[in-house]
Write a structure and sequence with these properties.
Layout: H1 14-74, H2 82-90
């Protein structure tokens, strides 16, 4: 059997291989740095979720105090604003009532 194929085996272009390796290394390094930010972002999201939960709880407590204040006013209570003042103090928005501390 006579093989007349003029097939040549090209030599591997080592410079091209080195260039591709360098390009891949840059991509992998960039991807690695991007992946390193994921734990930081997760921690920030967790912190913001906790803060949001606290703020929603404070808001709901203020809303309940406002409703109690309006109901107390409608019922003719002597101090209907007590509920609102109490909640605002509990949230640190008002100074403590000094009258209660005196003997």
């Amino acid at each position: 059997m006579v093989n007349t194929s003029n097939r040549t085996n090209p030599d591997t272009d080592l410079q091209e291989v080195a260039n591709r390796h360098d390009a891949a290394t840059v991509v992998v390094d960039t991807l690695g740095r991007a992946l390193d930010t994921i734990p930081l972002l997760c921690a920030e999201i967790s912190r913001l979720r906790r803060r949001l939960a606290t703020m929603l709880n404070d808001f709901n407590n203020l809303l309940a105090a406002a409703k109690a204040t309006l109901s107390a006013h409608a019922d003719g209570e002597d101090d209907p604003l007590y509920y609102l003042r109490d909640e605002l103090r509990a949230q640190g928005q008002l100074r403590p009532d000094r009258r209660q501390e005196r003997p």
